[in-house]
Amino acid sequence: MFLQRRTPQLPTPEEALKGRPTPEFTVPSTHTVLGNPLEGPYPEGLEVADFALGCFWGAERKFWQTDGVWTTLAGYQGGYTENPAYEEVCSGLTGHTEAVRVVFDPKTVSYAELLKLFWESHDPTQGFRQGNDVGTQYRSAIYTHSPAQAAAVAASRDAYQKVLTAAGHSTITTEILPAESRTFWPAEGYHQQYLDKNPAGYCGIGGTGVSCPIGVAPAEG
Question: Where is the Peptide methionine sulphoxide reductase MsrA domain positioned along the sequence (predicted)?
């Protein structure tokens, strides 16, 4: 189904589907839970964070339930295909991962607190999968929007790796790259706030049970 490869492997830019100059669908204007616009421009003083931690249905809900989050948006990021469709992303031939854009008020919730939620809500050691969901579109990723975000991500990854290792887990495989030049493409309307519209819908999100030591000094050596 959806041309899934037997062994997940990211395509090269030359192998990736070409996509299209304009999207094939429209995105709803308003968040069904938070009541705020899904797409920017966003109010002054808010910041943007991009996370991928498996199926974006459950991932998005984790963030919209967090105080200080102004809006969330499910989408595709980290690949090559312009204006991709869900079936194309699921084929593994776009290079994208299922991502969530989180727009937040740093006066209420810090980026570090969002990172703690990110690390603890999934298993970042699994490569091209998350639990039973297998494919490059389920890989763990963070796309940063500033040098400060990049530094915070690196520090939190190193600190979390220490406690994961102590608990018997393997190496973090999370893709950490600048959001610049890695366009966030909003997903189809039916994916937006999916678990609000379908409370009994599928959610594959699950962490390791290991607490992330956000707020500690960066891990040594």
Answer: 50-203
